[in-house]
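Work Package 4 report. The design task specified in the project plan requires that, given a folded chain encoded as structure tokens, an amino acid be chosen for each position. We show below one input record used in the internal validation round.
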């Protein structure tokens, strides 16, 4: 098993990634990626506050599609290039986001829940022993899964719960069961693995093993050179293989009822 497919790639438009669009695609090709999905952080109409600064703006959206449509042609025969977004599920805002995207040729969405509200609020990657935080994270992810708008769940174990193991099991088991019911893969995230961010968590993927989920590998690239460390990529693949779960090679390419 190796990284030959990656649907989780960001661009400098999100404000915390770097490198040109062409550099990102070239780095992926050089690393042996043959199916590449761009999934920058999706803009949300009407959202302000700190979290707005970690997503591309509404005004950048057309340029995003134009740039990668051109690169799809430029790299034809070298890589199969797809254009989507990493998005969050925020009640009251989600439908407005879908309405906005309906005017663009968005091929897929991946569900990456970072915050508990559109304008920022709690960042789920911060350590917490508060069950209410974990419960809120899992509820948002499950509601996103149930929306049927997403192709898979990115870093599903991002919520860094450091409290009672029985509490963690109860809530994360519900997330794994929902993903299995709706047949959505759960991502093993290379960025978290490489940077030791607290995810991917073995305890979480033992639950996925118990439930029988499907996994998917995601580079979560924020810079071109993050494709260029084969030793880490291979080590992450070996880590994922220990659970003996099926690994999704591709995801359906469609607008997933965005309009």
């Amino acid at each position: 098993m190796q990284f030959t497919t990656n649907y989780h790639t960001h661009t400098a438009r999100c404000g915390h990634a770097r490198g040109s669009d062409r550099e990102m695609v070239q780095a992926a090709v050089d690393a042996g990626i043959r199916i590449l999905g761009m999934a920058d952080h999706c803009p949300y109409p009407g959202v302000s506050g700190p979290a707005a600064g970690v997503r591309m703006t509404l005004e950048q959206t057309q340029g995003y599609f134009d740039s990668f449509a051109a690169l799809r042609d430029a790299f034809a025969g070298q890589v199969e290039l797809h254009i989507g977004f990493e998005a969050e599920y925020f009640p009251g805002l989600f439908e407005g986001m879908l309405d906005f995207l309906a005017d663009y040729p968005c091929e897929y969405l991946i569900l990456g829940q970072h915050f508990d509200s559109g304008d920022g609020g709690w960042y789920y990657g911060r350590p917490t022993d508060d069950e209410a935080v974990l419960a809120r994270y899992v509820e948002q992810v499950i509601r996103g899964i149930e929306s049927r708008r997403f192709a898979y769940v990115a870093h599903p174990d991002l919520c860094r719960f450091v409290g009672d193991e029985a509490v963690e099991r109860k809530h994360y088991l519900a997330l794994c069961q929902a993903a299995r019911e709706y047949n959505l893969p759960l991502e093993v995230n290379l960025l978290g693995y490489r940077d030791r961010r607290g995810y991917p968590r073995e305890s979480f993927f033992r639950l996925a093993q118990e439930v029988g989920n499907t996994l998917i590998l995601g580079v979560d690239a924020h810079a071109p050179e993050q494709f260029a460390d084969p030793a880490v990529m291979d080590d992450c693949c070996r880590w994922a293989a220990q659970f003996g779960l099926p690994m999704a090679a591709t995801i359906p390419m469609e607008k997933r009822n965005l309009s």
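The first strand starts at residue 5 and ends at 6. Validation will be extended to a larger panel in the next phase.
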